Amino acid sequence: MASSSSFLRSILFSSPTNFPSRSDSLSSFFPKNLTCSPPSTPSPLLSVSSIGSRSIRRVGDSRRKLSEARSMATTASQTGKEENKKRVEIFDTEENLAIDLAKYTADLSDKFCKERGAFTVVVSGGSLIKSLRKLVEVDSIDWSRWHFFWVDERVVPKHHEDSNYKLAYDNFLSKVPIPPGNVYAINDSLSAEAAADDYETCLKHLVKTNVLRVSNSTGFPKFDLMLLGMGPDGHVASLFPGHGLCSESKKWVTSITDSPKPPSERITFTFPVINSSAHVALVVCGSGKAEPVQMALNKTGSVPAGSVSAEEELVWFLDKPASSKL
Ligand SMILES: O=C(O)[C@H](O)[C@@H](O)[C@H](O)[C@H](O)COP(=O)(O)O
Predict the structure, then answer these.
(1) Which intervals of the chain are annotated as region Disordered (predicted)?
(2) Residue in 255, 261, 303 to alter for ligand 1 test, most ligand atoms within 8 A of Cβ
(3) CB–CB of 69/326 below 8 Å?
(4) Does ipTM come in above 0.95?
(5) CA 126 to ligand 1 center in whole angstroms
(6) Nearest partner of 107 among 32, 12, 195, 21, judged by Cα
């Protein structure tokens, strides 16, 4: 039987193109810091006829659950606009979630690379990064057009265990050929406040050079895709429940020095930036997050994740345990 990676490659994505595996050392792959000078649709994911019958049933089960969750999410607040742009996908296993997330991201990459010759992608830290493991197996992605950002970063050196850069580098960036100049890490030699200002300056430069779009309706930068995790307290990025930064309405990037989740010093995108994204995927797994998921989706409580929206589409990717209270 084929390994899961060749299995994915052969049945899910038909492009024969292979990209070279990355051999750059960590230090040579460090991006320019933020005085930056930035520089075929895959076949359907669960090509069900090619996958074992147990997986097909799981997908079917997931889809039924999905429609239930969709109607719950919709009836919870009868509003039109934001709710209509929201989808909830529930997967039997985190493995199936990771496969679908890869397909979702690859499709958007294809669309934006064709439409505008670039794909601006933002990631959080945390367990999300592990769920991107199937994405590195997609041969059809034009990585050269990717521009890679962090929605939040801990203010620590890039080689530090707490660094979101290091987490993404070790588990994702080191495995795909995104040009190093298109990877926008924070300047880790600055204070939190200065690093946030520096990152915002970088984003403004990328707007000027047309790498990054601006939302016509909000005037904030419009990333093509944000891939976000959610903490067990319902935080997203470094926007924590009850923290004043959740209502920041002017800055693009801001700093926090009293983060309840260590380390205390971080920079983070603000809600207006997150919510001006074209697409947002909120990826949440595990029963420990079932309650904030319920609070956010059924509007039974107030958690930062419940304030996330997107200009085109917000998709919640949940595994069964995370959806158990819906
Ligand atoms: O740097 C961080 O702390 C993150 O960017 C943060 O927003 C993370 O995504 C959530 O805390 C979820 O993390 P887990 O999935 O590991 O719970």
Answers:
(1) 56-84
(2) 261
(3) yes
(4) yes
(5) 4
(6) 12
